[in-house]
Amino acid sequence: MKPTRSQGKVKARFSCSVGFIPFPSAPPRLNPDPSLSSASSLLMAGLGAGLGARPSAAFEATCFRPLASPPRPVRSVKLIVPKRCFTVSSRLAWVEDELMETTKSQEQISVKSKKRPPLRRGKVSPQLPVPEHIPRPSYVGSKELPELCKGQLHDAQGIAGMRAACKLAARVLDFAGTLVKPSVTTNEIDAAVHNMIIEAGAYPSPLGYRGFPKSICTSVNECVCHGVPDSTQLQNGDIINIDVNVFLNGYHGGTSKTFVCGQVDDSIKHFLKAAEECLEKGISVCRDGVNYRKIGKKISKLAYFYGYYVVERFVGHGIGTMYHSEPLILHYANENSGRMVAGQIFTIEPIVTMEKTECVTWEDGWTTVTADGSWAAQFEHTILVTRNGAEILTKL
């Protein structure tokens, strides 16, 4: 939950064989040469061949005669590319084992997900209850967008409170990831996460924020962010971002991660790895006195290097006793002024898309998807700025 800015394989065909030719069990018998002893005859014939001369008939007959029996039959192992075959002898069984393991793993990752039709809104179940004894944020009950407050600086007590809230959010997100499986609905994930949060004595921050009806955001495939959990079933090959925010003892903590459902191909794995690395690059520049704009420059430079694009519409934000506050963290190259201060806590949460595209928000006012259907991925951490760097509060 975040404010807006206004607010490969190499295909080749080949075959090769690796064989082991056993030496004869007994030394070869040579025909005697009238002028030389049998040992001298063999030696001179070999030397002559080494110097470029044609070896004698005795040397050829001895060292190049065919085997008495053909080598033992060998097994073949098929790789992913059709008609590609390796023949390996039993003497090189370890090579065969390695090839079989490689084949098995490659077959698993080569299973490409079926082309899924565009996302459609499913059935949204009623809002889940929260026990009365759990404190609620001030915005609950209002459908108005809360005013963005000024930056929050945290003292030792505030930092301790933020650490506790962020650690809970991280544990909840880790649990949510275990629920991502084919046929599971996003509503089921929301319900399980909701129960975990309230059992910890916390309130799910998104619930009731400007009327948001659920406890987490679940953004599948082309959904950029703020997906509303509903009856949508996950399918093998999907990706899903789960955004978890909790309100514990007066402090908000938030984090998100994009998970894979079942098996995905290498291109999707590369995409997700690049998106997570963009977050890490943004965090790496954070420390007391550094310009905020360096975060966006680092993120966008890396995303473009990998051939992906950064969504400019959504930003990171300050967080603490207030859900959203200054500073607003832009994830793209910009020239905004402002420097980080030790004691600040804010989120960095870049959204990366596979293609350059616009974003479209559904009629529910929340779910935002790419206009062309290209997939999006997001990773988020809450960090504390220190004099020497940044502490990731939502890292387990």
Give the helix/strand layout.
Layout: E1 15-18, H1 38-50, H2 57-63, E2 75-78, E3 85-88, H3 93-109, H4 156-178, H5 186-199, E4 203-204, E5 217-220, E6 223-225, E7 239-248, E8 251-260, H6 266-284, H7 293-305, E9 309-310, E10 316-318, E11 325-329, E12 345-348, E13 351-353, E14 359-361, E15 368-370, E16 376-378, E17 381-385, E18 390-392
Parallel strand pairs: 1-3
Antiparallel strand pairs: 2-3, 4-7, 5-7, 6-15, 7-8, 9-13, 10-11, 12-17, 13-16, 14-15, 17-18
Helix pairs in contact: 4-5, 6-7
Mean residue pLDDT: 82
Instruction: Choose one word for the global shape.
Output: globular
- Structural class computed from helices and strand pairing: alpha+beta
> How many DSSP E strands?
18
Which runs of at least 5 residues are low in confidence (pLDDT < 50)? 8-53, 63-92, 105-113
Please give the count of helices.
Answer: 7
Helix share bin: 25-40%
Kindly describe this structure.
This protein is α+β, with helices and mostly antiparallel strands. Helix content is 27%, strand content 19%. The protein has 7 helices and 18 strands. It has helices spanning 38-50, 57-63, 93-109, 156-178, 186-199, 266-284, 293-305, and strands spanning 15-18, 75-78, 85-88, 203-204, 217-220, 223-225, 239-248, 251-260, 309-310, 316-318, 325-329, 345-348, 351-353, 359-361, 368-370, 376-378, 381-385, 390-392. The strands form 6 sheets. Strands 4, 5, 7 and 8 form a 4-stranded antiparallel β-sheet that branches. A hairpin with a 6-residue loop joins β10 (316-318) and β11 (325-329). α4 (156-178) runs antiparallel to α5 (186-199) and α6 packs antiparallel against α7. It is globular and about 50 Å long. Residues 8-53, 63-92 and 105-113 have low confidence and may be disordered. Pfam families: Peptidase_M24. Residues 112-123 have a biased composition (Basic residues). One of its GO terms (biological process) is proteolysis. GO terms for molecular function: initiator methionyl aminopeptidase activity; metal ion binding; metalloaminopeptidase activity. Its cofactor is Co(2+); Zn(2+); Mn(2+); Fe(2+).
